[in-house]
Write a structure and sequence with these properties.
It contains eleven helices and 13 strands. With 282 residues, it is of the alpha/beta class. Strand 2 (30-42) and strand 3 (46-50) form a beta hairpin. The chain binds zinc ion (ZN).
Amino acid sequence: MTTTLGFHLLRIGHCSHPECVTQRGGRLGNVPFPALAGLLLHPRLGPMLFDTGYSEAFFTATQPFPERLYRLVTPVSLTASETLPAQLERHGLALHDIGHVFLSHLHADHIAGIGELPNARFFAMRDEVDAMRRVSRIGGLRRGYLRTLLPASFDARLTCADDCERVALPPAMHPFTHGFDLLGDASVLGVPLPGHTPGQLGILFQTANAQTVFLVADACWSLEAVRHDRPPSWIASRLFSDKGAYLRTFAGLRHLLGRNDALTIVPSHCELTWRRLGHELR
Ligand SMILES: [Zn+2]
């Protein structure tokens, strides 16, 4: 029988961007861009996270120049009730309770909190980790990477997702065909989502109420944009590692969306998804 997981959506800070940058044909005005993370409750292995959102470490890392430019381009808000410790406390958990963190990719708004998690193992795609290691301080900044966010023990605590057993995904997930059995019990499947960065990873799992949840990180920035086939503007897509691959992944999500009522797709920065699921699941 499939292992089912508890799932809660966390909102760990936000920034804002002009809508016309986040989707073609969007308005000029700013739209909220929440940093969402997933809290997964595994019956045997305990609480886990998918990404961490922002943290105080983000502000420390972007204090000096040139890193401060990151903060100036995307002004970030992180209120006391939005921090990871505050969000976990609502579920009766503390930072040291988290044993596994699935990192979709290493952009600062997804990993800023990993240094606060003393007992976590990290999972990420090899190409993503290699890409971050290869870049210079300035080159990293241009790509959204802040290397000082990685704890010194990162390498020792890392499992490359692509070293886990490769498994076929169910036909209902077409055109996403394969994933990696991250925990060895088929409860959490890592799914490559190419294009946004060199090694973006989504995860797929089942909840106790028979929903299949697909956390897709930055493969799209809102479900509305997918529904109306509005990928990010050329300005934003210039930051992507492979624009063609991004558009293929985006089209794959469009194919999935609405075809299967039991599938919940969760992008990391979708305000409407937060409004729908952040309360429903709490
Ligand atoms: Zn990103």
